Amino acid sequence: MPYDLIVLGSGPGGYFCAIRAAQLGMKVAVVEKDKTFGGTCLNVGCIPSKALLHASERYDEAGHLFERMGIRLGKPKLDLAAMMKFKDAGVDGNVKGVAFLFKKNKIETFEGVGRIAAAGVVEVTAAGGNSERLEAKAIVIATGSDVARLPGIEIDEKRVVSSTGALTLAKVPERLLVIGAGVIGLELGSVWRRLGSEVVVVEFLDRILPGIDNEVCRQFRRMLEKQGLTFKLSSKVIGVAAAGKTLQASVAPANGGAAQTIDADVVLVSVGRVPYTGGLGLDEAGVKKDPKGRVIVDEHFATNVSGIYAIGDVIAGPMLAHKAEDEGVAVAEILAGQAGHVNYDVIPNVVYTHPEIASVGKSEEELKQAGVDYNVGKFPFTANGRAKVNLETEGFVKILADARTDRVLGVHILGADAGNMIAEAAVAMEFGAAAEDIARTCHPHPTLSEAVKEAALAVSKRAINM
Ligand SMILES: Cc1cc2nc3c(=O)[nH]c(=O)nc-3n(C[C@H](O)[C@H](O)[C@H](O)COP(=O)(O)OP(=O)(O)OC[C@H]3O[C@@H](n4cnc5c(N)ncnc54)[C@H](O)[C@@H]3O)c2cc1C
Question: Could you read off the pLDDT of 49-82 as tens digits, one per residue?
Fold first, then answer.
């Protein structure tokens, strides 16, 4: 009997889609080319990077903060192999969790590369070369993304690494050169800086973290510089050559000019990710892609070929796990005749450095460009009681609200635990809240979240603790 749905890929998009479809009574199969489920996110993305960020942050705290709190342990010693084991155990627990959920929801799984042979037909080729044909009423492409490469710079995952190699280095590099000041470059650059590397970040643009509110980024850059990261903005790496044990990167001004050489032991190429459609047979199946190689879908995630849908990193939009998850759920509900939907105006974005950056909605630059009149409410963590006792006073909360209606248009948090706090703002925005609504909501004391309430009060110039 054919399946109701075949999902290609078991990352956050694919596995959420499969589980929701099974919950809705569909007979579901998942095809995954890798040995473990969970995709980029669980295997080589969100989960291992957060494990190393967490562990390296504790290591850094033990070295710098503990004494100030009266905890004397002596100088902490790094056991990198044990830290990597800790990270791998976290990954293992998570990928096994997905396998458990597939079983629990009676989802059939196939290991191999899935190719769309025709609408409704998927051919799965296992590593040994054996292949089988599966049939389904609907196919969802959730094949995710791959590392973007730079012409002329070959990634060997040993000395010239992508994020994947940077998560498994066997030794702390003395000098790490990071190409690209986006989220992944800054997160992994922070990990290795805390563990002892000298880190230089080269960025083509004149700012870090393009797309994130400029005021937040300016302050954040100064914080990272204080932590020891060095930035070379408006610059591009035009080549990396090996000279014995040293790598020599040629770094030129972005708009041309003489190059200088920067020596490094490891170079991390983190210049973004590209949609992954290898082996899928999209051209033969007639599925259209845009010039960036992303599968084109309509507002119901349908491609131009009837019965074929796509979600996650392989389509347009922010390459984020929670965006892929929500699209997976939405397309499953649409296939079941329900009104699945994703609100792209309220997708939070988090940079898991220390402090964290978390934002949702519009930045000031976007509102200015759109000609929207807005009020700003800002509250610094230096004025938050819990932040003071925790010695976590860096950063602020900024709320942007419509000048006429007071509706919240954007929330930006730079500070410890910002990633957890932004969820409140996302819920408020989903409900169309005004800054007044957040301001009048009782927040627990003493918590960092009171800074969100105070920023909401500050929109109408009535913050209490400032
Ligand atoms: C270092 C790093 C850190 C990140 N941190 C975060 C973070 O903190 N928060 C966040 O939101 N996002 C983060 N991301 C991004 C996040 O991982 C992706 O947005 C997310 O994984 C996309 O999910 P997806 O389901 O679309 O695709 P993927 O997770 O890429 O999964 C696609 C799956 O499809 C499989 N596949 C591909 N082709 C085929 C085929 N033909 N047949 C069978 N299987 C196939 C692949 O093997 C893979 O398992 C991070 C990414 C990286 C690299």
Answer: 999 999 999 999 999 899 999 999 999 999 999 9
Instruction: For residue range 74-105, list pLDDT tens digits in order.
Output: 999 999 999 999 999 999 999 999 999 999 99
Atom 30, ligand 1: residue with shortest CA distance: 144
Nearest residue (CA) to ligand 1, atom 15:
320
From 16, 40, 350, 359, mutation site for ligand 1 pocket: most ligand atoms within 8 A of C-beta: 40
Is residue 376 a contact partner of residue 362, using CB atoms and an 8 Å limit?
A: no
Q: Quote the CA–CA distance of 329 and 341 in Å, as a whole number.
A: 9
**Can you tell me which atom of ligand 1 is nearest the CA of 146?**
30
Q: What is the pTM of this model?
A: 0.97
Q: Give the residues surrounding ligand 1 with Cβ less than 6 Å away.
A: 8-14, 31-34, 39-41, 45-46, 49, 113-114, 142-145, 163, 184, 276, 279-280, 312-313, 319-322, 324, 352
Q: Which of 17, 20, 41, 313 to mutate to test the pocket of ligand 1 (most atoms within 8 A of CB)?
A: 41
Tokens (6 digits) for 233: 């903005």
Distance from the CA of 13 to the center of ligand 1, in angstroms? 8
Query: CA 150 to CA 165: how far, in whole Å?
Result: 16
Q: State the average pLDDT for the chain.
A: 97
Both tokens assigned to 51 = 């494990």
The sign of the CA dihedral 440, 443, 446, 450 is negative
The 8 Å CB, 24+ separation contacts for 80-87 are 80/169, 80/170, 80/171, 80/172, 80/195, 81/170, 83/52, 83/55, 83/56, 83/59, 84/168, 86/51, 86/55, 87/48, 87/51, 87/52, 87/55, 87/167
Active site residues: 445
Q: Residues 137-147: pLDDT tens digits?
A: 999 999 999 99
Confidence of residue 119 (pLDDT cuts 50, 70, 90): confident
Coil, strand or helix at 4: strand
**Chain segment 340-354, per-residue pLDDT in tens:** 999 999 999 999 999
Q: Whose CA is nearest to atom 38 of ligand 1?
A: 143
Specify the DSSP class assigned to residue 169.
-
| CA of 407 relative to ligand 1 center, distance in Å | 34
> Which phi and psi angles does 172 have, rounded to 5°?
-75, 120
pLDDT tens digits along 160-178: 999 999 999 999 999 999 9
Two structure tokens written together for 5: 């749905």
Atom of ligand 1 nearest to the CA of 280: 41
Q: Is the pLDDT of residue 1 over 70?
A: no
Residue where the block lists tokens 């992994």: 188
In this structure, the residue with its CA closest to atom 37 of ligand 1 is 143
